[in-house]
Design goal:
homodimer, 131 residues, mainly alpha, Multidrug-efflux Transporter Regulator, Chain: A, Domain 2, two-stranded antiparallel ribbon, 6 helices, 64% helix, DNA-binding
Chain lengths: 131, 131
Amino acid sequence: MKIGHLATAVGMDIQTLRYYESQGLLSEPARLQNGYRDYPDEAISRLKFIKKAKLVGFTLKEIKDLLAIQVTKDEHTCQEVKSFTQVKLAEISNKIEELQRIKVALEKIHTSCCGGDETAAHCSILSALEN
Amino acid sequence: MKIGHLATAVGMDIQTLRYYESQGLLSEPARLQNGYRDYPDEAISRLKFIKKAKLVGFTLKEIKDLLAIQVTKDEHTCQEVKSFTQVKLAEISNKIEELQRIKVALEKIHTSCCGGDETAAHCSILSALEN
DNA sequence: TTAAACCCTAAAGCATACTATAGAGTCAAG
DNA sequence: CTTGACTCTATAGTATGCTTTAGGGTTTAA
């Protein structure tokens, strides 16, 4: 399977596939006589794995590590795999908390402003940022 | 006031101040005879403004725009200022929602895994990512 | 006078995940 | 035989907010 075909099959860009290869997420495929990449069918499932992992928030580096475990499942434990989701969940929870803190602070100054046509000379949003 | 003094006063790095100047958040200060920057006292309040604005999630570019309004408050309306917090609030809410979507998806596959000592051959996390 | 502490500019580096560009070879159809 | 679609490599650019590096003046205190 040539790269364009694979890209279409998984809904990704050709450049992205080459980029993933450069980052070690996709192993170097065989080459045709003309130098074109020739992917095995498994490349599709591997890319689908990457897509799903991205959807749940993993970075490419983390996905690379996950894939390394996945191809040698037998030599790894559930515990090991679960620690990935554990860490990521904590990260995401922290981000959400941080954003919620920001949101609350922002809402506070937002609602304190009339939002009217008058000049901003005494705007409470600006005041809040000044003091 | 020299840059080191200012940096200490506001708890920022000297490099950061110069960077802010390069980005137009801080106007170019007067220079001493030796070429050293000589800041007016107002620089402190301006930097505090920047700090607060960052704390509520504004980017440097947005802060630059906010500062432009702030220095000519009289020529701007509350409405105008409030639209900044409005837009930012919407952005933050979207990010939170996205993260919560991710969190839910991740929690689902996380809790489905036993996390035990056995091999990951049948790990439900990996399965979830594969299918 | 000399060493520490302070200041200057310009440019590169970092992290993330691509995206774009340049320049060039290959293949299939008409 | 040429045109369009496909592929290749290598390099640079994007966005964000700094941080670091390199190389070099200035000031102050001992």
